[in-house]
Design goal:
There is one protein chain. The chain folds into two domains: 173 residues, tt1808, chain A; 60 residues, no CATH class. Helices cover 34% and strands 18% of the residues. It has six helices and 13 strands. The protein has a six-stranded mixed β-sheet, with helices on both faces. Strands 5-4-7 form a three-stranded mixed β-sheet, covered by helices on one side. Strands 1-2 form a two-stranded antiparallel ribbon. α4 runs antiparallel to α5. The longest helix has 23 residues.
């Protein structure tokens, strides 16, 4: 996480605390029953967590996502990934189980041993991927999968979570605000049935062509029945509309225009 963990000793035995002992909103996580304080997020991580959460939450395949949700995997364990995708119910209290995808932002002051313990706990409990966004040194993302070696991805590389995310996520979309905004816009458009912004622009151009075609037909005194009008207005093939427009300029009847 980009939040600094208070230094903690290695525990010889499980501690007495359970998830029920930690109130929602607390800055503590539990490691085998021992509370570990999580300091507020620093400036290097705060904006980037927002960027990454925005991209992941808007992916067309995602129904549930959250920032800093608390998960209990055992009585003495309570962990809160920076971003979780999946298993984030809109209900009060700690969440049983784990998310299929968890994202951690590791900035300055990161307690690496506790981060690795959290990763191991999440993977063992069923998380399929843990993405660790490294904010110190070269910008990169470490991908952890249970039973596999850690893989590291840099700017320009794509991260995938099949079955959880529809779209691949470029490393910079988890770090750079502008890249995150562009990916978020694409995701939101896809949720509305558009592939990307160019598709929206093309639709506007096609609607303009259809309107122009109807105007030319009207100017030539050619009647357009409702069925034919609906066909013209519903056409999304720019080349087809251009062909109809060319024919309409010299047509005497509708059959000379439409295929």
């Amino acid at each position: 996480m980009s939040r600094s963990h208070q230094a903690a000793e290695l525990y010889d035995a499980p501690g007495p605390f359970r998830a029920a002992d930690v109130p929602p909103g607390s800055r503590y996580e539990l490691y085998d029953g021992h509370p570990v304080y999580c300091a507020p997020t620093g400036g290097d991580g705060a904006s980037r967590i927002v960027a990454g959460a925005e991209v992941l939450d808007t992916d067309p395949a995602v129904e549930e996502a959250g920032v800093d949700p608390g998960y209990t995997t055992a009585k003495g364990k309570l962990h809160a990934p920076d971003v979780a995708v999946g298993n984030v119910p809109d209900q009060p209290g700690w969440i049983a189980g784990v998310p299929p995808l968890a994202v951690e932002y590791a900035g300055s002051g990161q307690d690496e041993s506790k981060l690795q313990e959290k990763i191991a706990t999440l993977l063992q409990a069923g998380t399929r991927w843990v993405w660790v966004v490294r904010l110190v040194g070269p910008r990169r993302v470490d991908v952890h999968v249970r039973g596999e070696a850690v893989r590291t991805f840099g700017p320009g590389d794509e991260l995938r979570a099949p079955g959880v995310l529809q779209n691949p996520v470029r490393v910079e979309e988890l770090i750079d605000r502008r890249a995150a905004h562009a990916a978020t816009l694409r995701n939101l458009l896809q949720r509305q049935g558009y592939a990307d912004l160019e598709s929206v622009r093309e639709e506007g151009r096609e609607e303009g062509r259809a309107t122009a075609l109807l105007a030319v037909l009207a100017a030539r005194g050619i009647a357009v029945p409702d069925e034919a009008r609906a066909r013209i207005l519903g056409c999304r093939d720019g080349a087809q509309l251009d062909a109809w427009l060319g024919r309409a300029a010299r047509a005497d009847q509708l059959s000379d225009v439409l295929d």
